[in-house]
Design a protein that fits this description.
This protein has helices spanning about 1-30, 135-160, 160-190, 190-205, 210-230, 240-270, 275-285, 285-305, 475-490, and strands at about 35-45, 55-60, 60-70, 75-85, 95-100, 105-110, 125, 125-130, 310-320, 325-335, 340-345, 350-360, 370-380, 385-390, 395-400, 405-415, 420-425, 435-445, 450-455, 465-475. The chain is an alpha+beta fold.
Length: about 500
Amino acid sequence: MQNVTRSLKVGALLIAASVGSVALYRTLFQPQGSAGNYHVYAIFNDATGLVPRSRVLTAGIAIGEIERISLENGRARVDLRIQTTAPIFRNGTVARRAVSVLGEFLLVVAPGTPDVGRVPDGGRINTVFEGSSTDEIVNNVAQITRDLQRVTERVSRAVGNEDAERDLREILRNVTELTRSVNATVQQNSTVVSHTLQNLDSLTTRGQPDVLATLSNLRESTDRLTQILGRNQPSGDNTVTQMQETLRNVADASRSLRESLDHVNNVAGSIDRGEGNLGRLARDESLIDEVQGTAEALNDVVQPISRLQTMVGLRSEYSFISNTLRSYVELRLQPREDKYFLIEVIDDPRGLTTVSSNITDTTDPTLTPHVRTVSRLTTDSFRFSAMIARRVGPITFRYGIKESSGGFGADLHLLDDRIEVRTDLFGFGENSYPRFRAAAAFNVLQRAWLIAGIDDVFNGDRFDYFLGAQLRFLDDDLKAILPFSGGAFTSAPR
């Protein structure tokens, strides 16, 4: 009789909590088609990174959210719920922008101008900018890397052997000697050059009547210059000899340069014929296919990571019968909309119970030959959970470790995922029956949930009912919180 009375009380509490939560939900949230919102849609070739309930921004201010994503004629149709205070006109645009290193995207709307008219309720935004995806960036970087590698290998083959290095040093030495000889020639003949310039200036100022005399003087000047350059100087400083030596050096340098160019042509010809590693890479199509297959395999590994979405949850539940408070820290890694990995750390006042079995053998005829002793030890330790979840329609199935023991669960999602009915079965072997927990969670605010339920239904001495609350933080929230937490750590006293 006492159990029946208790069950009736629990049922009444659940009904009251459900009615109150629904009333609170209807008070705080307008229905989907309320007068405060209107609906538009856009067509994307690729909706990767977009998820329902992602924000829609204009000038950095949230004006709505993504209502649903569906497939229409082989393309992605994205339906938006927009506030009536932010009208979108017919020349408006929508663009996909990355907001997270984990691959999350949101939509940015440019409303356009009122002179062309407003997009009606249920109408389409025609101009869409999809932006660059992670795959395109990776492919571009890979192409640039291959081009750089091809150039560096050609340069290495051209100057990477001893002959090319020796030729290059010879060319530099010849150029150095040439500049030194030219400098010495200019310094030694500076007086002669100055005198010649003076004669030319005199030639231009005398005029036409003195042209013949000027030509005669010019002939005499050239003869004098020949004597200065070839006869009147010592043999060690003979400028003509130095010029001849300089010309020979230039000829040697040009010959070395021609040999280097021949070597470069040989290398390029080997590449064209498919000889060597670089030639195989340029001509062997099977090798190119292998490189392309490796790049595609790497893309398959990187793509799920780029779409990874992270959620952190904080939850507390108060148990009325035992008068205790249970706390959870939850980390959810969601690579896809229908799949996620759940990790939890739980501070449960019941502690962590471990079961051990000890078998004692004896030869005493007065005693039982085999004695098995089962002991249960409860310690004040944290419990943890690690589960894999998969959603099929409105139901999410979970399997793995639940509160430091094997277990599984199922969640039912209602009213556009604003109501969740959660059930878990775990703790096998800790008591006479496994631990069964059922709870109803209501999304009362954007990141806040109200939870009510019953715990350990099958074990009457441990039966309890609870009421709690939960906060969930997504990638945007974590990105806004982490810079402040980093500043707090750096400003802490050391």
